[in-house]
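The protein record filed below.
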Amino acid sequence: MRPDAHTVAAPAIAAAGGSRARRLWVLWRYWLVREYKTRYAGSALGLLWAIIQPLATLAIFYVLFGKILAVRVPGLAAQNGYLLHLLAGLAVWLPFVDGVGRGVGCVVAYEGFLSKQPMPAEILPAVTVGGTLLTLFLGYALLLVLCVTQGVGPRASWVWLPPLVLVQLIITLGLAMLLAMAHFLWRDVGAFVAFFLQLWFYLTPIIYPLSQVPERFHSWFMFNPAACLSLAVQHAALGLAVPPATTWALLAWTVLLGGGGWLFFRAMKPALGEAL
């Protein structure tokens, strides 16, 4: 019997898809190593800055708001409850703002390279988000360790932290892809993002607990993906109460920014190719 054409073609298509996935994986790893090397090139402390900078940020905010202004977190009985709340928020915010802030200019920065050495442009925002992984895992690890030492954990709700980390990466990557392509097409985007990220931080319940915000404004935080992520992590790690719509809002942002950012990048790639 003569084999069906679809039966013969299917393994070939699957092999081609697998081969492409492997090439993208190898390419991403190569560029990620290059990202870390160039980011800390010429620095005496090198990769240690990825640890020192987040810890310094945590210390500054904790001393200012936790000690001097004596901010407290109702519903969190730990002695250093504000420190845990702050760390839960920064574990989300610092990798998020780093990935988005660096991602917005990644395509423009390698515009000349892409014109000479064609490669999948999606690798560039993926690498900028990959460059935040060390800070991300450090933040979550420190959060869990301090929760245990302060008697807040372990908790059964910690099983939700890995999915939340995955959601965080998807949202960050989607937004980085969207802004990277938008900045390539309209160069004013970079300046707007730099300004908005500063404002965005104070619109997210990180240095202040949600309980200090009048309840009638709580629903507005659902329009802020970083706030939804921070609240979800604070709930999972510390057991703090969050608005009932937080989970649904977070799922909506994952689809809108994760999927929408990727679709926008793919849709605008012909314009990128023509410009290069």
User: Anything to note?
Assistant: The two ends are 50 Å apart (CA to CA). Residues 5-39 form the longest helix (35 residues).
